[in-house]
What does this fold into?
Amino acid sequence: MKQLALLFGLLVTIILLASWLTKNSGSLLKTNITPSLPQVKIGEKVIPVEIADTNDKRQKGLSGRNSLGENQGMLFALEQNSIPAFWMKDMKFAIDMIWIDDGKVVDITKNVPVPAPKTKTEELIRYRPQQPVDYVLEVNAGWVDQNNLQTGIAVELPAQLD
It folds into this structure.
């Protein structure tokens, strides 16, 4: 009887271990194969970013996504120094926009809200910097305040953009 109880305990342990491995192996595999993102250093903060460097990527931006990683961003590399207009079409979460020119923050638009449901495209608010920029960094709303970001702070871009 004692041997039967020991065998039963061993069997339960194996089943629990197999269950845990099955449940966690997918996330372990994903972690190992996910490529690391390029990084932007803004002041003393380092942020992994996705880079929107083509017309298609810039047009899509963060539209349609449910979220953005807590300390991640999307960096829009503009074709030329300009005053671009950004909108929140198909956005599902609020963001902060950090306008960058010549390696420094030149303007900030905080807590840009999600548009009301069924807002017509022509009624969407267009957000613009106060001066020409060559990059725009979008992060989760509140990130700018949480990190005490101010205009004039230096920005180091990923090497691939030099």
Remarks:
- The radius of gyration is 23 Å.
- The beta strands are 39-42, 45-52, 73-82, 95-101, 104-112, 133-140, 155-156.
